[in-house]
Design goal:
Rossmann fold, alpha/beta
Length: about 250
């Protein structure tokens, strides 16, 4: 029998409550392992949680004093200081507010001279420093995780990703000076090797993909469905995103 309760699913009233719950969850994991390696997604869904953790850091500096941060994806082809990059987002939301020192932060170069070599660099670093203790993810409108897009096959490790048209419309890029040429991201095996996964889903644009995710069917055409293979996924969503029930399962 398929386990339809695989996710620890919690529906929160709104985005503020989601951020508070996510921050509390992350703080709890960091207290268990103060030098935890956090793989952090960017975008709107985790933003409030990062802000609240920054506030906790000001009140409790020792909480984040040893935590390590990994930038798990990036918009390829943009300058590192482009306002649309994951780098700028994480520097503004996490690295500076959390006082993460340079030796505790690692991530993709957004404009590598040799993209395959950059993938190798990230692969080697993760092999020596991973796996992630916690991977924080958002859910793409087409079911992507990071920049692992729907396809006939999915890459297991760090790779260059061809971006879907819906991904190119991501809100992070509205202030970018240029459009990204490709994506740079960890692969599905890297994600699934994380010890724990925190998936944050908010807003009406995520209603359909969240309903699809709640159907226990794994397919490369909906990469987020691979989370059904992970034993420790906490899924926090707001009421708006959860407004549609999962579709009924089809059986032969």
């Amino acid at each position: 029998m398929t386990n339809t309760n695989r996710f620890d699913l919690r529906v929160l009233p709104d985005d503020e409550a989601l951020g508070q719950q996510a921050a509390e969850w992350l703080a709890g994991e960091i207290r268990k392992k103060p030098d935890a390696l956090l793989g952090l997604a960017t975008g709107n869904s985790p933003s409030r949680a990062y802000d609240l953790l920054a506030a906790r850091h000001r009140a409790e500096p020792e909480l984040l004093a040893r935590v390590r941060v990994l930038k798990i994806d990036e918009w390829g082809g943009l300058a590192m200081d482009d306002p649309g990059t994951c780098e700028v987002y994480l520097q503004e939301k996490v690295v500076r507010p959390w006082a993460v020192s340079a030796d505790r932060y690692f991530g993709w170069q957004s404009r590598p001279t040799d993209p395959p070599a950059e993938c190798g660099r990230v692969r080697r670093w993760l092999a020596g420093n991973g796996p992630m203790d916690v991977c924080v993810l958002g859910l793409g409108v087409n079911g992507h995780l990071l920049m692992n897009e729907p396809a006939d096959g999915l890459e297991p490790g760090p790779h260059l990703a061809e971006l879907a048209e819906t991904t190119k419309q991501h809100g992070m890029l509205k202030d970018a000076r240029h459009q990204p040429q490709f994506g740079l991201c960890l692969g599905m095996a890297d994600i699934l090797q994380a010890r724990k996964i925190l998936l944050l889903v908010s807003g009406s644009s995520k209603t359909q993909p969240l309903a699809r995710l709640r159907e226990p069917m794994v397919t490369t055409q909906f990469p987020a469905s691979f989370l059904w293979l992970h034993p420790a996924v906490t899924l926090l969503c707001d009421r708006e995103a959860a407004s549609q029930p999962p579709p009924p399962l089809t059986t032969l």
